[in-house]
């Protein structure tokens, strides 16, 4: 029996490169579809050398390219996106890649009759939450072109489900961090920036009072959630992928100061912050995917600091 092939847009990026090894362990073949503008070419070349991974260097904005490259694939994971901060600086590119790209990938998946499509949605679809933890059925209030495109992506999946029977899962990623992440990643760049400052003996600078919080999910745990969604018996719903723990920026700073082993006090910079607090309700992830996170924030941050020291 021929191996099943997973088509992964943006597969050469941070999260994709953590998901692919898990899929290879499960004996899938992989077709990475990536324009390589931010991809890790060295790592992709290593994966291609295994014989079970191929790279199609193309852009999700071109529907014909997406459709042709997806031929023969049984599953789709759609990661390709423009980051949240870039979407505010350049809404045109964001709408082009995130909206047109979403539609190209979803339409092709529906036309090819794939078994399952997993979409990287985002916790940012909730906007500033009215209550914690944030549940999938809560009101959505996306605030930027990026967040709006993620919500629209979920709605588009519903359209292709109704019109063509597409089977999908939309994973609302919370604040992903871990080894291999670029320092400019929007929400979690705070981790890398704090570590860099601490290593050079400088105090971290915290916006506001440091009461704003995030739900930091380690990329290793998140990757397992993606694979679980690809193979879950249930489908056609959004699922939060987080830890359920809200870690304030002030707490994060303490954890990192301890992990780096330095003795400084943070500086507080008075300014407004966009989203005040975040924590995922992960009941659905447990019940539907049989998934829950294993890595605590303390463990993950300590490991990140050790890896960066190498």
Automatic annotation (TrEMBL):
Transmembrane segments: 6-24
Ranges where the NAD-dependent epimerase/dehydratase domain occurs: 6-242
Keywords associated with the record: Membrane, Transmembrane, Transmembrane helix
InterPro entries tied to this protein: Epimerase_deHydtase, NAD(P)-bd_dom_sf
Signal peptide per UniProt: none
Homology family: Belongs to the NAD(P)-dependent epimerase/dehydratase family.
Protein name per Swiss-Prot or TrEMBL: NAD-dependent epimerase/dehydratase family protein
């Amino acid at each position: 029996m021929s191996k099943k092939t997973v088509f992964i847009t943006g597969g050469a990026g941070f999260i994709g490169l953590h998901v692919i090894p898990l899929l290879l362990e499960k004996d899938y073949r992989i077709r990475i579809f990536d324009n390589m503008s931010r991809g890790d070419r060295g790592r992709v070349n290593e994966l291609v050398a295994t014989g079970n991974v191929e790279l199609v260097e193309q852009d999700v904005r071109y529907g014909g390219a997406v459709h042709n490259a997806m031929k023969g694939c049984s599953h789709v994971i759609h990661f390709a996106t423009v980051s949240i901060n870039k979407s505010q600086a350049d809404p045109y590119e964001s709408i082009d890649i995130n909206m047109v790209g979403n539609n190209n990938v979803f339409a092709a998946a529906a036309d090819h009759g794939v078994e399952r499509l997993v979409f990287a949605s985002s916790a940012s679809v909730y906007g500033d939450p009215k209550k914690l933890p944030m549940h999938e059925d809560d009101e959505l209030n996306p605030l930027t072109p990026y967040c709006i495109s993620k919500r629209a992506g979920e709605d588009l999946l519903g359209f292709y489900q109704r019109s063509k029977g597409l089977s999908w899962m939309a994973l609302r990623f919370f604040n992903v961090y871990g080894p291999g992440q670029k320092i400019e990643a929007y929400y979690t760049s705070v981790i890398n920036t704090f570590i860099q400052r601490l290593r050079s003996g400088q105090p971290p600078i915290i916006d506001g009072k440091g009461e704003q919080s995030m739900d930091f999910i380690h990329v290793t745990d998140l990757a397992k959630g993606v694979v679980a969604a690809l193979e879950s018996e249930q489908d056609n719903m959004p699922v939060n992928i987080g830890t359920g723990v809200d870690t304030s920026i002030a707490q994060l700073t303490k954890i990192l100061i301890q992990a780096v082993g330095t003795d400084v006090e943070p500086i507080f910079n008075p300014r407004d912050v966009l989203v005040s607090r975040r924590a995922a309700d992960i009941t659905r992830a447990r019940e539907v995917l049989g998934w829950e996170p294993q890595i605590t924030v303390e463990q993950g941050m300590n490991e990140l600091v050790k890896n960066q020291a190498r």
